[in-house]
């Protein structure tokens, strides 16, 4: 790295790093100064609203490939190309379009990489309201313009539709007490709601996710205690009056024939979180679950309630989200179909094997729900 000008060059080292130091803390203000905001990205890519964008980022990235040259003419467009479309930009455009202070902060933060000809982002950057969240890139355009998908058990997801659903639901809860973000991922829930609560603790079993939660808290000026923790083992002390949030990492394992359908079965997720709540001390939890409703069960709400029949709770509220892209109606399963944007699909052409898997397991429908529990 000797002799490299941090304003005009970027590192070619592509190993995993995280933003560091004062430069990372400068990024939100610098992003806003050039118009790289949620509203601008929505308008640039033609999405309906921020929820539509995070639900269908990959689709919008593909549909706007013809805009690549145009995007690189403005700072906000170039940042959208780098961090939302996850596509490379010409090094000459990078140097001439972005302000010097922003280029310096990006370089010193370590979130860009490149060569003499092309610059690309190491992370996705998702604007949510007035905040910014770094995550792994679920897809990226290579130098030839082809899309590469990212896979791996430790991949940290960007904010997505379920994040926004639980964020809206959690905002209805009474503010004030400690906030515990369980399975924090990139930290979007805890960081977004931290100002409403006395303190923030973020927990994730994935060290990589915990690291990015810490980074995003610092990036957005939020004080957070971040721990690598497996809540399914129990024993984590929950302070009085706490609100626990858990956006469960549900993935239907239709491709491997596994007996366990979900990455973390929703019943286990619910029981683990409710088990952390001390009775009679004003604690409550809110979760997002994707529920496979068996044939013969009247509704997802009834199924979730049945999971807690042996657990004393003061209040249980289950809301079904049938307008979610993850909803698979009963009529579609026998036809071998699911919604075209269903996030349960690993690949675009996987609707038939997913539907067949659900049919073989005698699943009537798949229903996303938000759950509120108090003890």
Automatic annotation (TrEMBL):
**One Pfam family cited in the UniProt record for this chain:** MTS
Top-level taxonomic group:
Bacteria
Gene3D superfamilies in alphabetical order = Vaccinia Virus protein VP39 (3.40.50.150)
List each copy of the Methyltransferase small domain by range: 166-233
* UniProt-listed InterPro entries: SAM-dependent_MTases_sf (IPR029063), Small_mtfrase_dom (IPR007848)
GO molecular function annotations of the record: methyltransferase activity
Q: What name is this protein filed under?
A: Methyltransferase small domain-containing protein
Q: Where does this protein come from, organism-wise?
A: Micromonospora rosaria
What taxonomic lineage is listed for the species of origin? Bacteria, Bacillati, Actinomycetota, Actinomycetes, Micromonosporales
């Amino acid at each position: 790295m000797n002799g490299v000008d941090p304003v005009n060059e970027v590192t070619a080292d592509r190993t995993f790093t995280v933003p560091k130091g004062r430069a990372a803390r400068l990024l939100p203000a610098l992003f806003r100064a050039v118009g790289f905001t949620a509203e601008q990205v929505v308008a640039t890519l033609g999405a309906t609203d921020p929820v539509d964008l995070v639900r269908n980022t990959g689709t919008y990235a593909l549909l706007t490939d013809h805009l690549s040259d145009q995007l690189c003419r403005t700072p906000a467009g170039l940042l959208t190309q780098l961090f939302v479309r996850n596509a490379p930009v010409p090094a000459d455009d990078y140097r001439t379009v972005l302000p010097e202070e922003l280029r310096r902060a990006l370089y010193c933060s370590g979130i860009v990489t490149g060569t003499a000809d092309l610059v690309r982002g190491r992370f996705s950057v998702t604007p949510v309201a007035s905040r910014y969240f770094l995550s792994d890139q679920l897809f990226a355009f290579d130098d030839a313009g082809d899309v590469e998908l990212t896979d791996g058990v430790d991949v940290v997801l960007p904010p997505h539709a379920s994040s926004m659903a639980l964020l809206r639901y959690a905002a209805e809860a009474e503010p004030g007490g400690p906030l515990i973000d369980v399975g924090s991922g990139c930290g979007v829930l805890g960081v977004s709601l931290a100002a409403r609560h006395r303190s923030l603790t973020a927990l994730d079993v994935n060290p990589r996710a915990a690291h990015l939660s810490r980074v995003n808290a610092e990036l957005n000026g939020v004080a957070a205690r971040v721990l690598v923790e497996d809540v399914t083992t129990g024993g984590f002390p929950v302070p009085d009056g706490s609100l626990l949030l858990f956006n469960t990492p549900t993935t239907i394992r239709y491709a491997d024939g596994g007996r366990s359908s979900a990455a973390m079965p929703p019943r286990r997720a619910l029981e683990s979180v409710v088990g952390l709540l001390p009775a009679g001390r004003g604690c409550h939890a809110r979760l997002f679950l994707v529920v496979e409703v068996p044939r013969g069960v009247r509704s997802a709400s009834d199924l979730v309630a049945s999971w807690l029949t042996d657990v004393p709770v003061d209040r249980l509220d289950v809301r079904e989200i049938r307008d979610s892209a993850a909803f698979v109606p009963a009529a579609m399963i026998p036809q071998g179909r699911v919604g075209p944007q269903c996030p349960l699909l690993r690949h675009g052409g996987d609707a038939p094997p997913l539907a067949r898997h659900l049919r073989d397991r005698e699943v009537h429908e798949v229903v996303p729900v938000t759950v509120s529990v108090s003890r």
